[in-house]
Amino acid sequence: MATAISLAFSLFLTPVFLKGFRRIGWGQVIRTPEDIANPNHEAKRGTPTMGGVIFILGTIVGYFAGTFFGGTTPALSAMLVLWLMVGFGIVGFIDDYMKVRSQRSLGLSGWRKIVGQLAVLIPFGVVALNFPNSLDQYPASGFVSLFRDISWLNLFAFGAVLGWALYLIWISVIGVATSNSVNLTDGLDGLAAGAGVFVVGSYGLIAFWQFKQSCVGEGWNTVGCYEVREPLNLATVAAAFAGGLIGFLWWNAPKAKVFMGDVGSMAIGGVVTAMAILTRTELLLFVIAGIFVISSGSVILQRLYFKLTRGRRLFLMSPFHHHLEMRGWAEVTIVVRLWIIAGLLAASAVGLFYVDWFAQASNG
């Protein structure tokens, strides 16, 4: 229900939003280095942007409607996902608005973006490690996790003060790195939205499996069970977000009639960050969101190689999808191929997650 409502919201209401975007002048600014180097990007000038607002609203409507019709109530864990989605989206919106208003590609500086992200992440982290439920479960954990908490990677092993510092630094690194990686991936029509469907959809599957194999509640099972708090609500909010992205993708796929803008890419990063932390699969994020890692990794490699070789380039242009453009690949070809890679990586991560459960269940 959450997926269907969110999808319908984005699919059918996007044209209504686009009329409003055009009326107030929310058009894409084309002045970045990659746009100048790619003449085909000039044709995108003026395309409505900040479309991320649409699937953010669709997710909120879909989640609350889904919980209502499903006979459940909104839970703290899902509220934390929505908090990061909206908070990161606001940071991106401010960046987009500054670009559109000045008609320049310069919005918030890198450090100001990070400060804004930290202003959202710190309250998220504090709340997530407080306010236990009646079963003494917290939304987040003080351990680093892979498929579940890793017992020997306790961030609070050296005391509460240092533990809180390490914990907040850890979730901040995850959040800033993930959101900016999604932002770098959002360079071609539909690329970030399509990849986001695979990533967030996979997190929805993981959360639902955790619900069915929960250590407490309706799905009680002691063998290989999960201590995740409110996994069904996490699955619901992930399903709502994935549905919103699918509906938006109808209008964002090549040739895009609307761009998500930083408000959209940052929101995707916020949801992926929250799902990784709250499902206790933080290190698995590198695989399940591997397509975003490829984008940010290619930028890092390009800069390192440039400095080490004193001016030589590893790629014709970074991120990697722009390198493929410069090699003459058609935009739609690049997008579809990278969607396939995103799907394979996300499916592999879900498979590894299941293998871990199967191994523990077999040993038990």
From TrEMBL:
Pathway: Cell wall biogenesis; peptidoglycan biosynthesis. Its main location: membrane. This is Phospho-N-acetylmuramoyl-pentapeptide-transferase. Pfam families: Glycos_transf_4, MraY_sig1. It is a multi-pass membrane protein. The chain crosses the membrane at residues 50-69, 75-94, 114-132, 152-178, 190-211, 231-251, 258-278, 284-306, 334-355. The gene is mraY. It catalyses: UDP-N-acetyl-alpha-D-muramoyl-L-alanyl-gamma-D-glutamyl-meso-2,6-diaminopimeloyl-D-alanyl-D-alanine + di-trans,octa-cis-undecaprenyl phosphate = di-trans,octa-cis-undecaprenyl diphospho-N-acetyl-alpha-D-muramoyl-L-alanyl-D-glutamyl-meso-2,6-diaminopimeloyl-D-alanyl-D-alanine + UMP. Belongs to the glycosyltransferase 4 family. MraY subfamily. Its EC number is 2.7.8.13. InterPro entries: Glycosyl_transferase_4, PNAcMuramoyl-5peptid_Trfase, PNAcMuramoyl-5peptid_Trfase_CS. It is found in: Cell membrane; Membrane.
